[in-house]
Amino acid sequence: SSAMSKTPSRATNPTLDAGWHLAGRKGPLTGSQIGDYELGGILGEGGMGTVYRARQLALDKVIALKILHPVLRMQSEYADRFMTEALAASKLDHPNTTRILDYGEDHVGLYIAMEFIEGRSLLDVSFENFPLDPRRVVNIMSQALSAASAAHAIGIVHRDMKPENILIVAGKDEDDH
Asked: pLDDT by residue (tens digit) across 73-101?
């Protein structure tokens, strides 16, 4: 397509962080391309898939790309659940949730492209700042529960709510977001 032929490369685009692809540990797909996405390091792994830091080529933008585990791809119930998750989550619009940008299938597998959020997990924050001030805990958990409530309102159940999956980002007013 014409968008692909005009895609800037890292070598010609000084605005792209030169080390973006090294963030996270190297995975078996690091350096490969899935659809319009070039894969960098692994950000995390779960029961359903692996999340890579990736670069959306057409927009030269860093995103997170969740790829369904290859073994599960062969089982239609998991593939269907994965794609249903992407479609349902794309309808969720809440300030405390990650936005879904795209989803699809490529030669490597099924994927969900998500907004990349630069933050630290609640697990890491808890270990680094133990014990957390009770007011801080209430603030963080109020936001997480508000996001869960918005998801439940449209029929989404997270199924993997844990400190590793809650990201803490410094807000404009320096409160946790």
From this structure: 888 888 898 898 899 999 999 999 999 99
